[in-house]
Amino acid sequence: MPSIARTFTTSAAPEAAYAYLADFRNAEEWDPGTRSCERVAGDGGEGTTYRNVSSFLGREVELTYTAVALEPGRLVHLEGGRDGFAGHDRFELEPSGSGTQVRYSADFSFSGIAALGSPVVGLWLPVLAAKTLPQLRASLDRLAG
């Protein structure tokens, strides 16, 4: 199961970082692979679903994400999936000075024919993280200024 975890600090307060990350439509700003992300059901709380279209390894992929755990100021956990793929994105937040320490982790699992791509995804994740984390941090930092 390919996975990645990174920790960084942002100048955004935990409440602001949480509100931004809990609204997964904001992935259009912080995730360089996301082409579109729209809420399709729910009020933004647990159980809310999003339609996310991303470019991944040169292919356009549509996933459905669900907010499975939301703890204001502390945790955003989204589960994404489609045939043969399941992914978990977690943002764990804790105060750090006047800002927030963010621990981002992503775990992916594949089944059926999609499992053949698992090793490639595992190799690609560090490259993807190197692109995503600076953009995510900059998006969160803008909330403080």
The unreliable regions are none
Which outline best applies?
globular
Determine the CATH topology. Alpha-D-Glucose-1,6-Bisphosphate, Chain A, domain 4
CATH architecture: 2-Layer Sandwich
Q: How many independent structural domains?
A: 1
Counting DSSP H or I runs of 4 or more residues, the number of helices is: 3
Mean pLDDT: 87
Q: State the name of the first-level CATH class.
A: Alpha Beta
Give the CATH superfamily: START domain
Q: Helix/strand-derived class?
A: alpha+beta
Estimated radius of gyration: 15 Å
The helix content is: 25-40%
List how many beta strands DSSP finds.
7
N-to-C SSE string, H for helix and E for strand: EHHEEEEEEH
**Distance from first to last alpha carbon:** 38 Å
Question: Strand share of the residues?
Answer: over 45%
**Strand arrangement, largest sheet?**
1-7-6-5-4-3-2
Biggest sheet character: 7 strands, antiparallel
Reconstruct the topology from this structure:
Elements: E1 3-10, H1 14-22, H2 27-30, E2 34-41, E3 49-56, E4 59-71, E5 75-82, E6 85-96, E7 99-110, H3 118-144
Looking at this protein, list some descriptive labels.
single chain, 145 residues, alpha+beta, Alpha-D-Glucose-1,6-Bisphosphate, Chain A, domain 4, 7-stranded antiparallel sheet, 28% helix, 48% strand, globular
Descriptive account of the structure:
The protein has helices at 14-22, 27-30, 118-144, and strands at residues 3-10, 34-41, 49-56, 59-71, 75-82, 85-96, 99-110. It is an alpha+beta fold. The protein has one domain (3-144): START domain (Alpha-D-Glucose-1,6-Bisphosphate, Chain A, domain 4), CATH 3.30.530. It has a seven-stranded antiparallel β-sheet with strand order 1-7-6-5-4-3-2. β5 and β6 (85-96) form a beta hairpin. It is globular, with a radius of gyration of 15 Å. The termini are far apart. The mean pLDDT is 87.
